[in-house]
């Protein structure tokens, strides 16, 4: 495979998934500039996370559970949470619950896309490997982003429960990301029997959260009221 082919296949899944979730916004799509900024922030996160993961592995060893939850899931999901909270959470463009999903997915897929490119070139991946990464790690990051963004949206628009949902915005992606990695590491020869139902669950749960976040949009209520008047 040529360098251009590998690069295209490594980038395409992240861009396709981000486009899918961006277009799921029913009422007021986010400014492209903001979405791309969060995507870029996600890419930048790869470098400090890789350094931190290397340090953690040196200190804690490579036990599958420790790697999955401490070295992989925790730093990746924490830094994504950190970026969303301090960059976009209080921004004026965050004006409906679904926006949290768009921005969190953008950060997550920015991270997953650059990580995919690095793996593709350093590990000399072939077509089948890149397709597998598209269906597993890249899709997984998108699902974790939906979880995170859904609860950021809840935190933004239910002030009485802000702290609870900010906690969920980190804790749930952290937990499921850890489970995801642990299955791949601990069930080497029969991982598909666990991963297939897990991915089905994550996708169905994510689509439910997408619909629920859209349904809670104040812009949607305004649109319905306008239709009634007409």
TrEMBL record:
GO biological process assignments: proteolysis
InterPro entries per UniProt: Peptidase_PrsW_arch/bac (IPR023596), PrsW (IPR026898)
Pfam families documented for this protein: PrsW-protease (PF13367)
Molecular function, one GO term: peptidase activity
Entry EC no(s): 3.4.-.-
Signal peptide feature range: none
GO cellular component: plasma membrane
Source organism superkingdom: Bacteria
Keywords for this protein: Cell membrane, Hydrolase, Membrane, Protease, Transmembrane, Transmembrane helix
Membrane topology (UniProt): Multi-pass membrane protein
Subcellular location: Cell membrane
Family: Belongs to the protease PrsW family.
Record's function text: Involved in the degradation of specific anti-sigma factors.
NCBIfam families in the cross-refs: intramemb_PrsW
The name this protein goes by in its record: Protease PrsW
Species name: Paenibacillus naphthalenovorans
Lineage: Bacteria, Bacillati, Bacillota, Bacilli, Bacillales
